[in-house]
Amino acid sequence: WQAGSWEPCSVSCGQGFQSRDVVCVQQVSQNIYSMVQNQFCVGPSPPMTKPCLGPPCEGYNNHV
Fold first, then answer.
1. Residue 58's pLDDT band (boundaries 50, 70, 90)?
2. 42 exposed, middle or buried (CB, 10 Å; 0-12, 13-18, 19+)?
3. Is 22 in contact with 14 (CB distance < 8 Å)?
4. CA 33 to chain centre
5. pLDDT tens digits, residue range 10-50?
6. pTM higher than 0.90
7. What is d(CA 26, CA 46) in angstroms, rounded to the nearest whole number?
8. What Å distances lie between residue 33 and 2, 26, 29, 36, CA to CA?
9. Do the beta carbons of residue 36 and residue 15 sit within 8 Å?
């Protein structure tokens, strides 16, 4: 598996998520890799998304 860099948080404030590309790759030669179908990778893929938390949103009151 090859995981890319995390993208910035999807929101400027409050709860959001980050995403990244995750692909299955196979080594062809010493420094050359080729993308292959996911079924050829061993084990579960790394997560493609994760939660992120921006600063509190101004003017938002979450009292119920």
1. confident
2. exposed
3. no
4. 21
5. 999 999 999 999 999 998 998 899 999 999 999 999 999 99
6. no
7. 16
8. 10, 5, 7, 9
9. no
Q: Are 18 and 9 in contact (CB under 8 A)?
A: yes
Amino acid in the structure at residue 59: G
Query: In the prediction, which pLDDT does 41 show?
Result: 94
Residues in the chain: 64
Site of tokens 């790394």: 46
Residues 6+ apart with CB under 8 A from 27: 33
Distance CA 21, CA 45 (A): 11
